[in-house]
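Whether sequence alone determines local backbone shape is best considered at the level of individual chains. When preparing material for the folding task, we compiled for one chain both its residues and its backbone structure tokens. The sequence in question and its structure tokens are set out directly beneath this paragraph.
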Amino acid sequence: MKVSVHAVGRMKAGPEKQLADRYFERFAKSGPAVGLEFAGVAEIPEGRAQTANERRRDEGQKLQGQLQPGTALILLDERGKNFSSEDFAGRIGQLRDGGRKAMVIAIGGADGHDQPLRDQAELVMSFGLLTWPHQLVRVMLGEQLYRAATILSGHPYHRS
């Protein structure tokens, strides 16, 4: 299953980008052994509309334009459900084993995700009730994808 990340906003050079890239690279190397192929990070600029609703709608439409039929959509949102790393890995494994060919994990803009996207998503998940800077969300997502691959493969990284 191809796994890609869709992110609103650009990641600037710096230590956060280096760390995010390191975890995405680890995932790209470990994922194929468990049927997960990293397809990269697609960035779109933040919306410039006047209102939050318009920005969410514009950003959501850009994501919709990139989704292929049958793609599993996971949204990262502070109002989403919290999962353990094992549960997250299990959900990814279920999608893969259920025959899904692609999965997109979307990091929304500062205003969050548009309701039609939330309705379409397989899963709306959170990294906790705290609000995180988007740069750190990318780092945490990259690490959790790598961790999911190690959990699915039985590698001891997860126990560390």
